[in-house]
């Protein structure tokens, strides 16, 4: 009987290992179109890897996060990103970092990170932050908000729309880590009204349930990217 139990346990472990090894890696870019010719390939779901023997300390280093970003723009904020493009050694490690500077009453507009959860800490100032859930059973999207002061920490779950707003009349600074070497960012207004080429106005008119002239006006605006 013990032999039967052992064989059953072995079969379960083998099945679990098979499932685990069959799991696809998380995408590190918006899409990855397959090509048969490796000479025409640019990425391997992220970046190619350097020979470990050729790695050096500089591959794991960058500087400059002590420098404030320029917040003189329409949204009043600036995001300085430290991802795999800045630190090659981040490749495959599943993490990145940003510094966010906010002018008085500036904001980091509603946006999403399709490939990463974000954890944010306030270094200076006061921020009103929040995120919106996906559709709940009642069909509604629940809003979670909090006012953060220096030293406070808040988490924005992966893929959910979120924002930060500087409520004070002095500049604010925050740092955030993201659970991807390239979390991606989709700023909602920019993507919807500033895509290239533009989304058909008839689609947006019905989606937002407003007059078509409103959509035409919004699509003609310059949508600033603070990243």
TrEMBL record:
One of its GO terms (cellular component) is apoplast. One of its GO terms (molecular function) is manganese ion binding. InterPro entries: Cupin_1, Germin, Germin_Mn-BS, RmlC-like_jellyroll, RmlC_Cupin_sf. Residues 63-216 form the Cupin type-1 domain. It is found in: Secreted, Extracellular space, Apoplast. It holds the Pfam family Cupin_1. Keywords: Apoplast, Disulfide bond, Glycoprotein, Manganese, Metal-binding, Secreted, Signal. SUPFAM superfamilies: RmlC-like cupins. Oxalate binds at residues 108, 113, 118. Residues 1-22 form the signal peptide. PROSITE patterns: GERMIN (PS00725). Mn(2+) binds at residues 111, 113, 118, 162. The keyword Acetylation does not apply. Disulfide bonds join 32-49. May play a role in plant defense. Probably has no oxalate oxidase activity even if the active site is conserved. Belongs to the germin family. This is Germin-like protein. The lineage of its organism: Eukaryota, Viridiplantae, Streptophyta, Embryophyta, Tracheophyta.
């Amino acid at each position: 009987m013990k032999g039967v139990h052992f064989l059953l346990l072995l079969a379960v472990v083998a099945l679990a290992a098979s499932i685990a090894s069959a799991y696809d890696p998380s995408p590190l870019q918006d899409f990855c179109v397959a090509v048969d010719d490796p000479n025409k390939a640019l990425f391997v779901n992220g970046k190619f890897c350097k020979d470990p023997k050729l790695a050096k300390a500089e591959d794991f280093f960058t500087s400059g996060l002590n420098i404030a970003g320029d917040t003189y723009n329409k949204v009043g904020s600036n995001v300085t990103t430290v991802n795999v493009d800045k630190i090659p050694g981040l490749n495959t490690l599943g993490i990145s970092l940003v510094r966010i500077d906010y002018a008085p009453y500036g904001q980091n507009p509603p946006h999403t990170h399709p490939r990463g959860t974000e954890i944010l800490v306030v270094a200076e100032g006061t921020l009103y932050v929040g995120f919106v859930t996906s559709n709940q059973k009642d069909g509604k999207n629940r809003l979670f908000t909090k006012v953060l002061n220096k030293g406070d920490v808040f988490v924005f779950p992966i893929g959910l729309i979120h924002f930060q707003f500087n409520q004070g009349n002095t500049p604010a600074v925050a740092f955030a880590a993201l659970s991807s070497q390239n979390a991606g960012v989709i700023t909602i207004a920019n993507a919807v009204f500033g895509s290239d080429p533009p989304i058909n106005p008839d689609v947006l008119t019905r989606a937002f349930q407003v007059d078509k002239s409103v959509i035409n006006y919004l699509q003609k605006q310059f949508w600033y990217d603070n990243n």
